[in-house]
Amino acid sequence: MASDAEPLVLKSPTLRWIEHRLPIIGFGYQHLVAYQTPRNLNYWWNFGSLAGICLMIQIVTGIVLAMHYTPHVAHAFDSVEHIMRDVNWGWFLRYAHANGASMFFIVVYIHIFRGLYYGSYKPPRELLWMLGVVILLLMMATAFMGYVLPWGQMSFWGATVITNLFSAVPFFGEAIVTWLWGGFAVDNPTLNRFFSLHYLLPFVIVGVVFLHLVALHTHGSNNPVGIDLTKKDKIPFHPYYTIKDLFGLSVFFLFFGSFLFFAPNVLGHPDNYIPANPLVTPPHIVPEWYFLPFYAILRAITFDILFIPAKLGGVIAMFASIGVLFFLPWLDKSKVRSARFRPIYKIFFWLLVLDCFILGYVGANPPEGWLVPLGQVATFWYFAHFLIVLPLLSKLERPLPVPESLSTPVLGRGMAAAPAE
Amino acid sequence: MGRTVRTLLGVLLLAGLGTGPALAAGEAEPPIVQSWPHQGVFGTFDRRALQRGFQVYKEVCSACHGTKYLAFRNLAALGFSEEEVKAIAAQYTVIDGPNDQGEMFERPARPSDRKPSPYPNEQAARAANNGAYPPDLSLIVKARAGGENYIYSFLVGYEEPPAGVTVPDGMYYNKYFPGHMVAMPPILQPDGVTYADGTKATVSQMARDVTQFLAWLAEPKMEERKSTGIKVMIFLVVLTALLYAYKRRIWADVH
User: Fold this and answer.
1) Set of chain B residues whose Cβ sits within 8 Å of the Cβ of A282
2) Count of the separate structural domains present in chain A
């Protein structure tokens, strides 16, 4: 535990004076230097700090872009081109921000799947996991509103499709949509409020990230073996993980840079270089790639379920696909955290990964022919994984022997001591 | 773990492609794929092609199509001298004002002016073009699936309609255009322009030149972006190697 680390000794009287009154130096030392970290974390554990850096990049580039952007339907598209053509380094800022959003989602999705694989949502880290899901929801809202701001065709029609989803709410649907739009169509009031909220939400994310870190530092990181580690299997965060995270960051920047500098529009849609036109609907309205699996789930419900009309069913399914993650710690009751010792869970984990890619493929293409049943099967599997497979595996799966510590070999057969609450 | 990364990247790429060029093409033929001098990591614009392309745009396309983001000063990037840019600007008339009497007046354009649009507004453009609206060409290469290859293919893609297909009055058949029926006539004709550098103005040559000009216009900072990128990537490769070596050294006592 962090509190067990040797205390900070400040030589400078000035720093001692400050620390006595405002203990921020000790706080930083405790959480960034002395913080006890498992010594066996693999590179999948790099993605948490990478996500934090992505958030910072988005905030910094976004603040500078906002200095040159005009949130008005008559000027938004022009102001983005002004940034691209006339603002010093404007092309860099905009491409960094637009591709940065994609990078952020790549990093966060890997971070989430790492948590799924190694059981990082299990006791005592349930709230840590749930705060992460809140961050994901906030990120999705922020990214969606950010994509509207350039006011291209896909901005406008994406905003129209997604805000219209709320019209599926019984009784109040139309009123809610009018309220969201600030009028009777997606128009200037909508653009203005999306800009305002797009600027606000990242700071809300920063707040939730802080809580996420408080929860993380309370019990420390999970690890690839998934057992609670004793002090001898832990090492201080600095220098071991500062250097490992820096190395990972540099590799990540190589990946990021290859998009930013050499293929900045590959992840975007050509239609968003056409100014928004409420009179011309694009042939296929598709969201950004990171929303495609959810878009597929939304469109998978093509039939009424009892008294729930298909449209409402799709909206419920889409929100439930994130909502189900909140209940994950109670759906998977297996005492063993890491998939390393769960041979059957491991198979289902990779099936879920495959399923999400199938959903992404279905979401990217028009809902025609065999893609419709494929999307429905994939949607069913997504929910079945969490609601049927995980509870059953908790009871039926026989995990491999789990070691007592990182240095001791596995003794005996069957399950080792369950992680302490 | 390596396999996992490859799978992730592969499908990510797939998802990216799925949202990209494959869509929106409809029933149209896939565009002719060519290589362009400005393609690739080290690709730069061919200045002579850009100047020829600008000539095609100026003498042919700009009769109907505007380029609202093109200021005359931007033409310096095509290799024109300051004097040449001034001379090109002076060929156009812009409306300025109001003057001391409160009146708007016309004056020759200066390099700082944007190139005037051929029509005062969309309604005027439609009225002059049989109801069709010639789109602004500033971003056209980035705004069409297939980019340069599509624009080139479209310009050379006019042909007689297949048997049984009737083309309505004022429309033309283009095999690369989604839906095939397009209001724009096959405007590029052999020797439609006379190139100053003596290049023979075939339809294909003009289409290729004007496409390169439009690619520059859609992404004028491309060369700056790529050259910055190369420097950044070289720096990052070295930094990554150093950080990796340093990481191994720090971790030596743990492993």
Assistant:
1) 24
2) 2
Contacts of B7 in chain A (CB under 8 A): 353
Q: Is residue A237 part of a domain?
A: yes
A29-58 residue pLDDT tens = 999 999 999 999 999 999 999 999 999 999
How far is residue A57's CA from residue A61's CA, in Å, rounded to a whole number? Answer: 6
Q: What's the pLDDT at A197?
A: 98
Q: For A273, which of B142, B233, B250 is closest by C-beta distance? A: B142
**Predicted confidence (pLDDT) at residue B14 exceeds the cutoff of 70:** no
Catalytic, A221? Answer: yes
> Which one of A288, A334, A338, A355 is the catalytic residue?
A288
Q: What is the CATH number of the domain that holds A149?
A: 1.20.810.10
- Do A86 and A199 reside in the same domain of the chain? yes
Q: What domain range includes position A348?
A: 293-398
User: Are A165 and A298 in contact, with CB atoms under 8 Å apart?
Assistant: yes
| Same domain (yes/no): A178, A325 | no
Query: Residue A396 and residue A390: Cα distance in Å, rounded?
Result: 10
- A404 tagged catalytic: no
Q: A388 CA to chain B: closest CA distance, Å?
A: 25
How far away is chain B from the Cα of A360, in angstroms, using its nearest Cα?
Answer: 7
Interface test with A, best of B9, B17, B23 (most A CBs within 10 A): B23
Structure confidence by residue, pLDDT tens digits, A267-316:
999 999 999 999 999 999 999 999 999 999 999 999 999 899 999 999 99
Contacts of A251 in chain B (CB under 8 A): 240
CA atoms within 13 A on the CB side of A96: 23
Do A146 and A92 sit in the same domain of this protein? yes
Residue A288 a catalytic site member = yes
Residues A311 and A188 in one domain: no
Q: Does the beta carbon of B121 lie under 8 angstroms from any beta carbon of chain A?
A: no
Please, are residues A91 and B221 in contact by the beta-carbon 8 Å criterion? yes
Respond yes or no on whether the N-terminal peptide bond of residue B98 is cis (omega within 30° of 0): yes
A109 neighbors A290 (Cβ within 8 angstroms): yes
Cβ atoms within 10 Å, residue A372: 15
pLDDT at B68 over 70: yes
Q: Is residue A28 part of a domain?
A: no
Shortest Cα distance from B110 to chain A (angstroms)?
A: 17
Cα A250 to Cα A50, A103, A115, B166: the distances in Å are: 10, 14, 23, 59
User: Helix-strand-coil percent breakdown of chain B, rounded to 5?
Assistant: 45, 5, 50
Least confident of A328-332, B7-11, B110-114, B204-208: B7-11
Query: A271 and A124, same structural domain?
Result: yes
pLDDT digits 0-9 by tens, A78-116: 999 999 999 999 999 999 999 999 999 999 999 999 999
Q: With contact defined as beta carbons under 8 Å apart, do A136 and A322 qualify?
A: yes
Per-residue pLDDT, A407: 80
Q: What is the ipTM of this complex?
A: 0.91
